[in-house]
Write a structure and sequence with these properties.
The complex is a heterotrimer of chains A (366), B (305) and C (302). Helices cover 26% and strands 34% of the residues of chain A. Chain B is globular. Classes of the chains: A alpha+beta (366), B mainly alpha (305), C mainly alpha (302).
């Protein structure tokens, strides 16, 4: 059990120009916390994890585990366990040997290894497979062996690098819940890397969003969703993605297709403080709705309807200024509009409007 | 500096043994060998530590190179020997590659007894070179060799294979082809197995004929392995001393650069180390030129090597 | 040997079956016969020289040079008896020397090329490129013409006339290619395995020793085969660097007594050759199932 701290840690890959894969990362993870690092590919999330594991050099700054500076400590001295995307099971060892290997290296007594492996195997429903080689296992079983290998160690930190990305969709959802429950039960600090924002939202106590090596925001899933710190986080978290459009600003609010959407005072204040004539206007699909044509709203031509069962997603074009912009609206799945139909779309709740600086992307109401 | 060592000391520790061995047993002799090419060193003038005799050879500048490159027959007729070496090398590598590829394609099919065929076909590789040489020398014997016995039996002319004619060159090419095919076959078989099967299925869906599939999928798929084995094949064949010398002996009709270097080195009382080394350096130069041209050609085709 | 370009063979068995026509999973009888005929012919050519030496090894010298080929002609084990009894020299001592030298060469060459190949496969270090290039270049020089400087080096090191000296010389010829081959093989082992091992508590050497080497068995087997063959049956270096005393010769050197000018004792030489070839063929048989994977990954990756 330990807390983890990144202290202005950077990883710079040599090249011309040098690439800052992780740039001045500051992050504190509490003891027992489940922290998810999320971001698109190339965002530096895996590099950040590998720096913590000691598999990647820390070129600037420091990394601490349990208050101890481990920046220059090799992986074996860090008391960590890692689950790899490919699982990285040792092909020449049985499942039991794979799980017990780290203990064996530490000189733990054979009987004790056997007990611990048996215990972990029971927890993961692997008892039947202990004598098999990894080759003879299914994808889901291999994934569990990789988990087991980490658990048996009883490390102070678990590191997981996209451990579910090689599973099929159904198994992924199942395993997602299992991992979260297991972490809850063991109470071990866990850093989990994924590119899947659904995994991030469902599993993490807190989620850190990275882009181009820079930390964008680190907060609880709820706060990330409700108050994204910038347009990137707003667009990345949530599925379907938030509608983000650059629109002209008037003294009353944001101007969309003739309709002026009133804005909160805080947001307007932020915008006028910077004397902006345009803002990046963000609204989630569920905060929009189709209204009767008599009411005020934007005119939208329906271009695509995705039926999801309970809901339907309506994609359509709205004129903003001189250009046609695409919006997504979440509607009741039983009465979706038809293709080519003209509908009126309005903001249901103005408190769900997010405003961002059109250039920096930062949130305007602070 | 500390950081540099910190980061790389594992790597250096792991290559150190090889670097030491190679430096002592390859680099140093090589430098001395290159130095020899500028002298008139031979058995009589070299330092002999056993007899405690000091070296008496003298620096002669470029004389060895001028003598050899003049193409004079008392120095091994360099240019015509080079031409024969090139014929030998490209002849051998051509047959190695085509036969090796043909057999690899056959072995890559589902065929009963495949592992048995594979063992039989790779066998020539496992036989020590001097035994293969002996076996073929015996088989190529003009009177009692089985090759000529068969040729006579079917009414074909029976040449004196290993005599003073170009038949001798044909004979050593045959032996070397027999010897070298297994390596190519095994390497290309591995290359074939690394081509994803769905490429063939995609091509078949697109309506490609078998020949088109071979030309447009198999050959490009083998390009990387082919470029490596052909380069190695050329280098090895160019310097294939053992087979030529053991099968045909010091025969001018099978003389290639490397066997002539050996003749100068071993035969006669003089043991002309200087000329032998000069040949060694020239062989190295020819191969370096070939390798760099080859590499450039590959690079132009977008092959990273 | 025929190379039938009009019906190429393909990697995927299902596709291979399809290539021959509309009947899935079957091949026409004619194609089958053609395939087997080609393979049998090639196999016979590959095996025949060795077979013919075997046949000859049972014949007396005088019968070996008759102008009508016969499988049996006063055949007996006499040649073997005379070769093994040491009539022409201490055959068993030669054999022992050869085994010792070949095994030592194999062990040292595999060790040297494995460590180097691992460093080249896993670490980026300054000088790596030039090291690998130099391995290619040293294969271009006919090293046997450097016997004299090599002799001097070995003398200076006190290794001249010893088995170890000869073994090291063989290693320099085997290691460059073996390193290329093994580097290619190591490249196919995922780096994740190394990293998992590091996290589990291994040092970089530990990863090499406990994870990579056990996983690289096919590659190591081929390397060992190659190194063994380099040493087994080599003549030029062995006659230069081993002492001239009969009991320190290797087989390949010792057997040269059967090849005298103008008069070769074919029967005896054949028997001796078979005895020499047996260990090489045994080693070959042990590794042959690894040959394709072990060699090709090296050649594919270069």
């Amino acid at each position: 059990m330990a807390e983890v701290a990144y202290d202005s840690a950077s990883r710079i890959f040599s090249g011309n120009p040098p690439v800052r894969a992780v740039d001045q990362l500051n992050l504190d993870v509490a003891d027992g916390e489940f922290l998810v690092l999320v971001g698109p590919s190339g965002s530096g999330k895996s590099t950040a994890l590998r720096m913590l594991a000691g598999l990647e050099d820390v070129d600037e700054g420091a990394i601490k585990i349990g208050g101890k500076d481990v920046t220059n400590v090799p992986p074996k001295g860090r008391d960590i366990a890692m689950v790899f995307q490919s699982y990285a099971l040792y092909p020449h060892m049985t499942v039991a040997d794979n799980m017990g290997f780290a203990l064996k290296l530490r000189g733990v007594d054979k009987g004790e290894i056997k007990n611990k492996v048996a215990e972990a195997a029971k927890m993961l429903d692997l008892t039947k497979y202990l004598d098999r080689k990894p080759k003879a296992l299914s994808g889901g079983q291999r994934q569990r062996v990789a988990m087991g290998r980490a658990i048996v160690r009883e490390p102070s930190v678990f590191l997981m690098d996209e451990p579910l990305s090689n599973l099929d969709a159904k198994l992924r959802v199942e395993t997602r819940a299992n991992i979260a429950a297991l972490q809850q039960r063991l109470g071990t600090t866990t850093i989990y890397v994924t590119h899947d924002q659904v995994e991030a939202m469902t599993m993490g106590h807190r989620v850190a969003v990275l882009k181009d090596g820079l930390l964008q925001q680190c907060d609880t899933p709820r706060n990330l969703y409700d108050r994204p710190a910038n347009a990137f986080v707003a667009g990345f978290m949530g599925s379907p993605a938030m509608n983000l459009k650059t629109v002209p600003l008037t003294s009353e609010g944001a101007k969309l297709d003739g309709v002026v959407v009133p804005l909160s005072r805080a947001a307007l204040g932020g915008a006028s403080g910077e004397s902006l004539s345009e803002v990046t206007f963000g609204i989630r699909p569920e905060a929009l709705g189709i209204v009767p044509s008599s009411e005020a709203g934007m005119d939208m031509t329906v271009e695509l309807v995705e039926e999801l069962g309970a809901d339907a997603l309506v994609h359509g074009a709205v004129r903003i200024g001189d250009s046609s912009e695409r919006f997504v609206v979440r509607v009741d799945g039983r009465t979706p509009p038809t293709l080519g139909q003209n509908v009126k779309v309005a903001v249901r709740d103005t408190s769900e409007i997010h405003l961002f600086h059109p250039e920096t992307g930062n949130r305007l109401d602070g | 500096m500390r950081r540099f060592l910190d980061r790389h000391w594992y790597a250096y520790a792991m290559v150190l043994p090889v670097v030491v061995v190679v430096a002592v047993l390859v680099l140093y002799p090589l430098v001395q060998g290159v130095y020899f090419t500028f002298t008139d060193v031979n058995e009589a003038t070299i330092a002999n530590p056993v007899l405690d005799r000091p070296a008496t050879y003298e620096f002669t500048g470029l004389r060895n190179y001028l003598n050899v490159l003049s193409g004079d027959s008392s120095y091994g007729a360099f240019w015509s020997t080079l031409v024969r070496t090139l014929i030998w090398t490209f002849g051998c590598v051509f047959f190695h590659y085509t036969i090796g590829l043909g057999l690899a394609l056959l072995l890559n099919r589902q065929v009963r007894g495949r592992s048995l065929y594979r063992v039989a076909l790779v066998l020539p590789w496992a036989v020590p070179a001097f035994i293969s040489a002996f076996a073929w020398k015996y088989m190529f014997n003009a009177q009692y060799g089985i090759v000529n016995q068969v040729l006579r039996a079917v009414g074909l002319p029976d040449p004196v294979w290993l005599g003073q004619s170009d038949w001798a060159l044909v004979a050593v090419v045959v032996v070397n082809v027999w010897l070298g095919v297994p390596f190519m076959m095994v390497a290309l078989l591995g290359g074939l197995q690394s081509i994803p099967g769905d490429l063939y299925e995609a091509a078949e869906v697109d309506g490609a004929t078998p020949w088109q599939r071979f030309r447009d999928i198999t050959l490009p798929g083998l390009r990387s392995v082919s470029s490596t084995v052909v380069l190695l094949g050329v280098i090895w064949t160019f310097n294939m001393f053992a087979i030529v010398y053991l099968v045909a002996g010091p025969n001018p009709n099978t003389r290639i650069l490397v066997t002539y270097a050996f003749e100068r080195f071993f035969s006669g009382a003089s043991r002309d180390y200087a000329v032998a080394s000069t040949y060694g350096v020239l062989i190295l130069s020819v191969l370096l030129v070939f390798a760099s041209v080859y590499r450039r050609a590959l690079r132009e085709q977008g092959e990273v090597w | 040997m025929t190379f039938d370009a009009s019906s190429p063979r393909v990697a995927n068995p299902a596709a291979a079956a399809r290539a021959t026509g509309f009947r899935r999973g079957t091949r026409s009888t004619a194609a089958s016969i053609g395939l087997h005929t080609a393979l049998i012919t090639a196999s016979l050519i590959a095996v025949f020289p060795v077979f013919w030496v075997l046949v000859t090894s049972f014949k007396p010298d005088a019968r070996a040079v008759e102008t009508t080929p016969k499988l049996f002609n006063e055949s007996s084990l006499d040649n073997y008896v005379r070769v093994l009894s040491g009539e022409k020299g201490d055959f068993l001592a030669w054999f022992g020397n050869s085994v010792l030298i070949a095994l030592l060469t194999t062990a040292i060459a595999v060790f040297l090329s494995a460590t180097t190949a691992y460093a080249a496969s896993r670490f980026l270090f300054p000088g790596k490129r030039s090291l690998m290039l130099s391995f290619l270049v040293v294969q271009m020089f006919p090293f046997a013409v450097l016997i004299v400087p090599l002799y001097n080096v070995l003398l200076a090191l006190g290794l001249q006339g010893t088995s170890l000296g000869l073994v090291l010389v063989y290693c320099t010829t085997a290691v460059p290619f073996c390193t290329y081959m093994l580097k290619g093989y190591f490249d196919t082992i995922p780096q994740d395995i190394d990293e998992a091992g590091r996290v589990d508590g291994l040092s970089p050497f530990g990863v090499f020793w406990r994870l990579v080497l056990p996983l690289a068995r096919p590659g190591l087997a081929v390397t060992a085969f190659y190194a063994f063959l380099t040493a087994w049956g080599e003549v030029a270096f062995a006659s230069a660097f081993l002492s001239a005393a009969d009991e320190s010769k290797t087989l390949a050197v010792g057997l040269q007594v059967f090849v005298q000018q103008n008069r070769t004792e074919w029967g005896h030489l054949a028997a001796a050759s078979i005895v020499v070839a047996i260990p090489a063929v045994v080693v070959f048989y042990l590794v042959q199932r690894f040959l394709v994977t072990g060699l090709s990954s090296g050649a594919v990756k270069g």
